[in-house]
Amino acid sequence: MAEETNIRSFFTPSLSSVSGNIVNKTRGDKSIWAIVVLLTVASLLLVYSSTGSLAFRTAKSNESYLFKQFAFIVLGLIIIYFAHRINYTLYSKVALILFMISLPLLLYTLLFGVELNSGSRWIRLPVLNMTFQTSDLAKLALFMYLSRMLSRKQAVIKDFKKGFLPIITPVIIICVLIAPANLSTALLVAGTSFILMFIGRVNIRHLGLTILIGAIPVIFLIITALLTYDSTTHEAKKLPAVLSVGRIPTWIGRVQSFIHSNEDKDNERSYQINQAKIAIAKGGLIGKGPGNSEQRNFLPHSYSDFIYAIIIEEYGLLGAGVILFIYLFFLFRCIKIYRKCPYAFGAFLALALSFTLVIQAIANMGVNVSLFPNTGVTLPLLSKGGSSFLFTCFSIGIILSVARNVEQLEGSLTTNQTEEVEKGN
Fold first, then answer.
1. For the whole model, what pTM was predicted?
2. Residues with Cβ within 8 Å of residue 1, at least 6 apart in sequence
3. Is the CB of residue 249 less than 8 Å from the CB of residue 239?
4. By the number of CB atoms within 10 A of the CB, which of 87, 206, 386, 403 ranks highest?
5. pLDDT digits (tens, 9 = 90+) for 1-21
6. Cα–Cα distance between 141 and 379 in angstroms, integer?
7. 310 vs 292: CA distance, rounded Å
């Protein structure tokens, strides 16, 4: 008995000291930490509730996906902790290296990646036997590099050759490499980049001309979708051979389903949208209650792309509104970090990563409520864990790294001011 007491006394102080050490070293915006904890806990409930049909198809239990999600959350929190402990200036030094690594990875994904619906989006890691989207790494590398370039080119930012071209070129390269496999992600990356460049004082005429040029293929896609849809039979026409390459038929089909979702007879193509509408209609104002979703059994990808529809069905419009508010509050806190950060790179980096996460969240919500065509993007921190979840955690860790250094700087300034007042007295 005495020996057991001694063992307990040996482990208890060490465990408490380790946990106390971690808490003491945890810095950054406390509101963002609270948002991370709140969303990850909510993801446990949502993933457990929405993986019933997936568990049935894979002959697994719901609990197995719950434990897997919990493991991703623990790993994600570890990534956030260590990423926020690194001085954010280090990310400026590795930005170019990560950008150069992402280019061959994107090419490899296009040529040899794992295919789903005719789109190569993933590569398989041989040792871990796990797939991840190279576009997630490319996005992170691009925004690091873009923040670095914007901070260094402020003196010549209005000049086309010296300022604009070096900044827009990496954006175009990344978007062109992502687009063939994942057009929606390419458009989100481009949109976030243009917002960041606008805030970074890039010439508006240069931005406007680039947006007009980039809008040409998008407008062509929309016009093609309208012309290849028969309004009398409510069915899509056969596409010419030129437009039947790669993911183009999928893009056209998604635009057609979005525009003609009410009269589209192709049940397979409009099935997801219709099931999401049913889930929203059943949810009403306060929802059916946690775990009481019925459409989770019919809605494909209810645990990832269409998890927001399950949120509305189970927690109603009020619960969905709370989730939207949380993401907007997260953006508000990041904008405060941007305004407080005295150094351009940290300010641009925090803003870029927060914008891309919130824009992705709004895009996912918009798809679920039929405001946008189907994009295939997940809801950050709420959808079932995967490589996207871990890269989201890494991005939040970088934002908290900027916030931590801003706090340290403010603390040192306050200490210096106090010492000056004491000396004056």
1. 0.87
2. none
3. yes
4. 403
5. 444 445 444 444 554 554 455
6. 21
7. 10
